[in-house]
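Chapter summary example.
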Amino acid sequence: MPSPHSAVGSIDQIAYLDQAAASDAGQYKQRLLTGLDLQPGHSVLDVGCGPGTDLAALATAVGEDGLVVGVDHDPEMVEQARRRTSTLPHVDVLIGEAHALPLEDASFDRARTDRVLQHLANPAQALAELRRVVRPGGLVTLAEPDWDTLAIDAADTTTSRAYARYITTDVVRNATIGRQLGRLLNAAGFIVESVAATVVLFRDYQSAEAILRMPAVAQRAWQAGALDEQVARAWLTELAESPFLAAFTFFTAIGSVGRFSE
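The structure predicted for these 262 residues follows.
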């Protein structure tokens, strides 16, 4: 699931991304894989591939005659992704920026980003790059959270609101990117095929903590002066010891490139 907490230094990001993908909150991945309509022989691009969590599934879908290319800006992620796909000769992983992909024009049948746009300095430029590298008739899928919809139930609603506000204003660069996906696709020259919203719901503290990392983020917030430390600690104790509920909205979108696009 998308992490609003990638800057928390103690979190192992590779382990976190794998854990999020394997959780109940990661079930949207299969829907997006279906939405890509991958066929044997297709070439598919995964921008912001991280440690290669999804590359093997993409490779299976396009078969040995297809091509899967992952791109990530983080050398550690690229190294891990290459290691994981070393037995798959039709998978390549490159170091590169989403804003300036190291790829030729119209070179892919399909492309995807998953929880990447929320972190970028210029999401519109990243989508322009996807539009550049996807051929006429191709498809892209996007998946992003909308952190402005985060709701955490607690008797202390003031702290819950302050915590959520801190995430949207100080932690995630593009906290409301999920709701913007259709508009951004349209502005980049894609035909918007679908936009869907799913509520990600947590009913127990342990599963939420694995994804949302409440204590680590709350600590950042009180160190930044956004929360009172003692009040925040009491709030965390309440969350851990009381019946738990938290939710946010997750958006997915599919865009296509017209066959006779200019």
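To summarize the output: The two ends are 36 Å apart (CA to CA).
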